[in-house]
Specification:
Blueprint: E1 17-20, E2 26-28, E3 31-34, E4 45-49, E5 53-54, E6 58-69, E7 74-80, E8 88-94, E9 100-105, E10 113-121, E11 130-141, E12 148-152, E13 159-164, E14 172-175, E15 189-192, E16 196-199
Antiparallel strand pairs: 1-4, 2-3, 3-11, 4-10, 5-10, 6-9, 6-11, 7-8, 7-10, 12-13, 13-16, 14-15
Length: 208
């Protein structure tokens, strides 16, 4: 998460880089700021590039940020998977309203190392600007397994289960399959919200 706070005027956060044609992004009042009225000429651009983000070994990712504009102006979001040699366009926002929340799913880029380019295009309208704030790359972690499972009170049709783990997940999933069945794909996924639960409706004298 980068909220651009705590930096001196005009200073960029560590590992953020300006790629500039005529103008640049800079930090002002704890936000990333692009004054898009330099010389009152349309078409001036300024691009800033994020640090590298490693999307390997995760389930998915979301790109989040807030945008703000007071006049016409355009922000283009681009993404690179080759250390900035080439970029593909993720989204483009024109005539940004007072506040815009951006959410882009990046799951198609899982397994790659990426960086994000934020490009502003000036309109030349006096006193206009573009602002980006609360930049966040939300990682969706892969599911984790408990270190061990403890089975107690094994009865004819039920068993008590305890997941031995230090992880504090909001939910867990398990599958029960009979011995000899073709893997977990032949069972039904069950969701539980605690580390201790009872499995019922089992068949007596059966192995699972």
């Amino acid at each position: 998460v980068e909220n651009f706070s705590g930096y001196s005027y005009g200073v960029l956060p560590l590992c953020w880089t300006n790629y500039v044609e005529k103008q640049s992004w800079f930090v002002e009042y704890d936000r990333l700021y692009f004054p898009n009225n330099e010389n009152n000429v349309d078409g001036f651009k300024g691009a800033i590039v994020s640090p590298m983000f490693d999307l390997r070994g995760i389930e998915g990712a979301n790109l989040k940020m807030k945008m703000l504009g007071n006049q016409t102006g355009k922000v283009t979001l681009k993404l690179s998977c080759d250390s900035g040699k080439t970029y593909s366009q993720l989204a483009e926002y024109d005539n940004i309203p007072a506040t815009k929340d951006v959410l882009i799913n990046l799951s198609s880029y899982v397994g790659k190392v990426i960086n994000v380019c934020i490009e502003g295009t000036a309109t030349g309208i006096e006193n206009s600007y573009l602002i980006v704030d609360d930049f966040e790359l939300e990682l969706i972690e892969s599911c984790s397994r408990p270190e061990a499972i403890e089975l107690t009170r094994i009865g004819g049709t039920s068993v008590d289960v305890k997941l031995l783990t230090s992880l504090n997940a909001s939910s867990w999933q398990y599958v029960i399959v009979k011995s000899g069945d073709l893997g977990v794909e032949s069972g039904t996924i069950v969701d539980v919200t605690t580390k201790e639960f009872t499995i019922s409706n089992l068949l007596g004298f059966s192995k699972y």
